[in-house]
Amino acid sequence: MNTNEAEEVFAKEDRLVSTNIIFHDEEMISGVTVKTFSRFHKEKIEKELKKKLKEAYPEFDIIVSADNKIVHKTSKLIQDKDDKNLGKELKKLVSLLKEET
């Protein structure tokens, strides 16, 4: 999977401190950390990034979250590199996100 386009979208965004991107099957989950003064606009930033990523990856279900739990979980999944449990862990993440809304 070529993540260059996603990385470019995030690199152009000056309101972000860091990002974690996971591609699995037909899903893309990204945890983003926003700068201190941008935290009041988290939802707006999430929507804007999701829209840009949907243009680059129309075939994927895209999730962008600035929630600290999601950022931490995506970071941990990237470090673990355990492909066997990745699908199950991503389902847990998606269900966590749905609980929030």
How many beta strands in the DSSP annotation? 3
Radius of gyration: 13 Å
Strand content: 15-25%
Give the SSE order as H and E letters: HEEHEHH
Low-pLDDT runs of 5+ residues are none
What is the helix fraction of residues, given as a range? Answer: 40-55%
The main sheet comes to: 3 strands, mixed
Q: Assembly state here? A: single chain
Total DSSP helices? 4
Q: Structural class, judged by helices and strands?
A: alpha+beta
Task: Provide the spatial order of strands within the biggest beta sheet.
Answer: 1-2-3
Distance between the termini: 29 Å
Global morphology: globular
Task: Summarize the structure in short.
By secondary structure, this protein is α+β, with helices and mostly antiparallel strands. It is built from four helices and three strands, in the order αββαβαα.
Task: Give an account of the 3D structure.
The chain has helices spanning 4-11, 42-56, 68-80, 83-100; strands at residues 16-24, 27-34, 61-65. Helix 1 (4-11) packs antiparallel against helix 2. Strand 1 (16-24) and strand 2 form a beta hairpin. The protein has four helices and three strands; from the N terminus they run H-E-E-H-E-H-H. Strands 1-2-3 form a three-stranded mixed beta sheet, with helices on both faces. By secondary structure, it is α+β, with helices and mostly antiparallel strands. It starts with a helix and ends with a helix. The protein is 53% helix and 22% strand. The model has no long low-confidence stretch (mean pLDDT 86).
